[in-house]
Amino acid sequence: RSGINLYGDFTLCSQGEDIVSGLVHTLPITESQRRDYYSDCSLSLESEFPEIYNALLELATQLVDTYGFVHQEIEFTFESDNPDDLYVLQTRNQKLKKQKNLSRFVPAPDKMKLAGRGIGIGGGALSGILTFDMEDLKEAMNNHPGEKRILVRPDTVPDDIPLIFSCDGLITGRGGATSHAAVTAASLGKVCVVSCKGLTVNEADKRCSINGINFKSGDGISIDGSLGNVYKGVYEIQYE
After folding, report:
1. Cβ-proximal residues to 71 (8 Å cutoff; 6+ apart), any chain
2. How far is it, in rounded angstroms, from Cα 186 to Cα 156?
3. What does pLDDT average to over the chain?
């Protein structure tokens, strides 16, 4: 068996720009993704559309094993569960950013106050001050220069790119791992948790709630870009 694996997201009855814009909740490609990161989701491309999944896996295998390409990002659409109705829009080399430092929280996860879970991007652990907009980011930089700044957004729209450049980490309620903003954040080495279920954001009051746990601007918050966990409070981090 080839060592090729698929990872990503898709959505039903909508357009590709809906995923790219970060305005929809996405579905996982594989069953392993669904089990690990989509606890409230009952389907994946692999389980619901196995012929489409296998056709994509075969294509990826050919690109890498037969033609010698590096890891590929594949954009596709399909009109039915028949593989003849699968259309590949484009493929491109995946840009893999090597982490300079591996980081993890010193306390065990069961010793931390878990607020919610989403899809972890970028890997690593991050603790810092919760921010909602550019005003918060600038204020935190001026008043707490040594603190990391974690941005919370309801979604990952492209308009948020300037905010993503300024923050150290990102939490969103909607949007998958392949939205423009999430991809940008990951390429910049930011620690991210996207599609955090149970997150509601009140931008006007600069408050948010994750599964009934309330946060406001300036509160301490921590995220795990590997596990996809969001924790209330600030915790010690170990770098390796």
Report:
1. 64, 93, 94, 96
2. 12
3. 88
pLDDT score, position 100: 56
Residue 98 DSSP class: P
**Contact predicate 159/181, CB 8 Å:** no
What are 99's two structure tokens? 């982490």
Distance CA 189, CA 230 (A): 18
More confident residue, 154 or 230: 230
Residues 198, 20: Cα–Cα separation, whole Å: 22
Q: Where are the beta strands (DSSP E) in 40-176?
A: 72-78, 86-93, 103-105, 113-117, 119-121, 125-131, 149-153, 169-172
Both tokens of residue 123?
């890997």
135 closest CA partner among 203, 187, 200, 215: 203
**Is the pLDDT reported for residue 34 higher than 70?**
yes
Bridge partners, residue 150, by sequence: 130, 169
- Using DSSP's 3-state secondary structure scheme, residue 214 falls into strand
Cα–Cα distances (Å) from 175 to 29, 113, 132, in that order, read 15, 24, 17
pLDDT at 98 over 60: no
Residue 119 CB neighbour total at 10 angstroms? 24
Copy the structure tokens of residue 52: 């489409």
Per-residue confidence band for 1, with pLDDT thresholds at 50, 70 and 90: very low
pLDDT tier at 217 (50, 70, 90 boundaries)?
very high
